[in-house]
Design brief:
single chain; 140 residues; alpha+beta; Thiol Ester Dehydrase, Chain A; six-stranded antiparallel β-sheet; 3 helices; HotDog_dom_sf; Thioesterase; THEM6_lcsJ_thioesterase
Length: 140
């Protein structure tokens, strides 16, 4: 799969429903936005269609966040998701939240794709996505 298919970028703005009692973005909202990043990647790569067809389900096994600076009401920010690597079971991802060329938060995720038989190994997933997109497999 081409490298750009493993990156998702979303440009967003902090809205009133994103805020907590301290009037900055709620920590739970960061996790929701990480989910949106992953869904964007699934759709853009063709994985969403493949998951529906094969009845696969994406599941996050672990997620951590480090908060550096608050996002306040109406702050513009960009969040990028990069799939950094995978092993025999998990995909590993980094979510970077940027505002005004400054990192405001970083998250890491570890996720799997599940079928009714159990975990679908990432190599099988990547090859299936490439095949569905008509790409000669480059995944080793």
């Amino acid at each position: 799969m081409p490298a750009n298919a493993l990156i998702s970028r979303l440009r967003l703005r902090t809205l009133p429903n994103d805020l907590d009692i301290n009037l900055h973005m709620n920590n739970g909202r960061y996790l929701t936005i990480c989910d949106l990043n992953r869904v964007d990647l699934f759709i853009r790569s063709g994985l969403a269609k493949l998951m529906l067809k094969r009845r696969w389900m994406p599941v996050i096994a672990e997620h951590t966040m480090t908060y550096k600076k608050p996002l306040k009401l109406f702050d513009a920010f960009e969040v990028s998701l990069t799939v950094t690597h995978w092993d025999e079971k998990f995909f590993y991802m980094t979510h970077t939240f940027m505002a005004s060329d400054r990192v405001v938060a970083i998250g890491t995720s570890k996720g799997v794709i599940l079928s009714r038989q159990g975990v679908v190994d990432p190599l099988t997933v990547m090859r299936a996505v490439e095949e569905s997109r008509g790409i000669v497999s480059t995944v080793v």
